[in-house]
Design goal:
By secondary structure, the protein is α+β, with helices and mostly antiparallel strands. 39% of the residues lie in helices and 16% in strands. Helix 6 crosses helix 7, helix 7 packs across helix 8 and helix 7 crosses helix 9. The protein has a three-stranded antiparallel β-sheet with strand order 3-5-4. The chain has a three-stranded mixed β-sheet with strand order 6-8-7, covered by helices on one side. Strands 1-2 form a two-stranded antiparallel ribbon.
């Protein structure tokens, strides 16, 4: 019988295979309809947890595939304890959790028993199954909160994202969108050159994602030259980080990047086929990208985001997978 590690690895491979299939079709969550905004922010109404990293991306993929409108997910135990039943024939979605530390009892110099937290030499992996609200009998109808509605015009949101960017954003009459690490600045074509505001916002957020990798910020490895493996890894992180940020800010996902990303998609496929765990490391880094961008935005304009209102200790730990970057899986 397969253990937790084998089950989690099999689930990872299945998800990456699905993502690769989407990429080969030239799609990566870019065609979600308007109502997907809330559903792409998976949450647990029982524990008040917002799913993160690889778990978040997995639940987003299920929502997109099955066209769920409900962002709420919970375990069978949590649902049963509240008196709910899962609909006949429904199957749960496996999520993962990595444990990197444990609590142990020891004695201090006075002989008193105290508790201390120690790091594990080898992280432990666990998994659990969750069910969407639409898979539950007589589950209360989902009512979008204020955070799921448009709180500000997109044009104003774009201006605020530029204002809170940690490097200059230059809009110029040229045909490239890029972040320059050496000059620490973002250069974009004029807004009038984009198909619509959503497309400008998506491109801006993608480039701001690259900006967070600077040594003075999140300190990710440099992207390297176009077509290289490191370039593909950094592009994947910026793209997933933009996806998370757009969903949390309530920006429509229907916009397009100014530049054709078909070359990026092909390079990502190569990286993921070589190591499907790279996708989960990218999701972990993408969470940090999104957290920084949204943190800058909400702090400056004193806005409260539900996704940031959960106590740190209660948040999903799957983003900690980034700690495994240099470990063998």
């Amino acid at each position: 019988m397969a253990g937790a590690f084998e089950i989690v690895m099999a689930e990872r491979k299945a998800l990456v295979d699905k993502i690769i299939s989407m990429m080969k079709k030239g799609d990566f969550f870019h065609n979600a309809s308007e109502w997907d905004r809330a559903a792409l922010r998976p949450q647990n109404p029982m524990s008040k947890v917002w799913y993160r990293g690889g778990n978040r991306l997995k639940l987003m993929a299920v929502v997109t595939e099955r066209k769920y409108r409900d962002p709420r997910w919970a375990t069978a135990k949590q649902l049963f304890e509240k008196g709910f039943r899962i609909k006949a024939g429904e199957h749960g979605t496996i999520c993962e959790k990595w444990i990197f530390e444990k609590e142990r009892k020891t004695k201090d110099e006075h002989g008193n028993i105290v508790k201390e937290v120690v790091q594990l030499d080898h992280p432990q992996v666990m998994y659990f199954r969750v069910f969407n609200g639409e898979q539950v009998e007589d589950f209360p109808e989902y009512v979008p909160s204020v955070q799921d509605e448009d709180k500000t015009q997109l044009g104003q949101m774009i201006d605020r994202l530029i204002d809170t960017c940690e490097c200059p954003v230059i809009e110029a009459a040229q045909d490239r969108a890029y972040y320059s690490p050496s000059q620490d600045k973002i250069v974009l074509p004029l807004r009038s050159m984009f198909k619509d505001e959503e497309s400008f916002a998506k491109t801006l957020i993608h480039e701001e994602g690259h900006m967070t990798g600077a040594p003075s910020r999140l300190n990710r490895p440099p992207g390297g030259i176009f077509g290289s493996e490191q370039y593909a890894k950094e592009e994947l992180r910026a793209e997933i980080g933009a996806l998370f940020t757009e969903a949390d800010l309530g920006i429509s996902l229907k916009g397009e990047h100014y530049e054709d990303h078909s070359d990026y998609l092909r390079s990502w496929i190569s990286v993921l086929q070589d190591d499907y765990n790279e996708f989960f490391r990218a999701c972990a880094d993408a969470e940090q990208i999104s957290k920084r961008l949204i943190g800058n935005y909400t702090k400056k304009y004193e806005l409260k985001m539900e996704v940031d209102g959960v106590p740190e200790k209660d948040k999903e730990k799957d983003e900690s997978m980034s700690q495994m970057e240099n470990k063998s899986l």
